[in-house]
């Protein structure tokens, strides 16, 4: 049987009144008529997503789901009943979340961060908002400064909780967040800042170390050029003002203009920073 919840590239084996039967040479699956391309030939390859239809039969679709097997996504609840919640994941058949897999009882119309997994007992694709069971709680082997893939989990008073590379939990501290709009389920890149003795991981959205200084310096330089060679920011500017204008911390700003000054690309005066012409 073809693996459910993932994309497959399959060959067209035969055409019938109900659609095309696709094959990998061993297993076949139906691509319903409504998803059949206008032109095709037997033997052509198609990339399709495979899941179970309303009658619990494997079926292929050319629709693109919002989540795939072993991934995370922020999905909206279409409706609930006595068995659980049913999420909109971009396909005809809603994605089921049983009550036992809900971190808190789900409500219709609200969105939740969930993980998609294959229930081995029923061989059905199921979602869960109890995320810790799908994460590695062992100490991570990330390197400081390593670029990683982040999924925004939720926002707290301390900062933004994230999922790192789909395997570990991490935290971006509130005073290091310089992105205006952060929503659960958003995917972005980040960098490992610190792995603590207790295994907790600090993450940042900006590069760390010398490389970050160079990147910030280039950003300030670009902003100067876009602002006719002048930025009304100085060492005495309030951190919030710097954050609003440049989306970086005051510490990062000072390091950046220090780099540009040493390279004789800017002048620093009482009223702001000037681009050297």
TrEMBL record:
Looking up InterPro entries in the UniProt record yields: CvfB_fam, CvfB_S1_st, CvfB_WH, NA-bd_OB-fold, WH-like_DNA-bd_sf
The residues covered by the Conserved virulence factor B-like winged helix domain are 219-275
Per the database record, which ranges form the Conserved virulence factor B first S1 domain?
Answer: 4-62, 75-128
Q: What family is this?
A: Belongs to the CvfB family.
Record-given protein name: GntR family transcriptional regulator
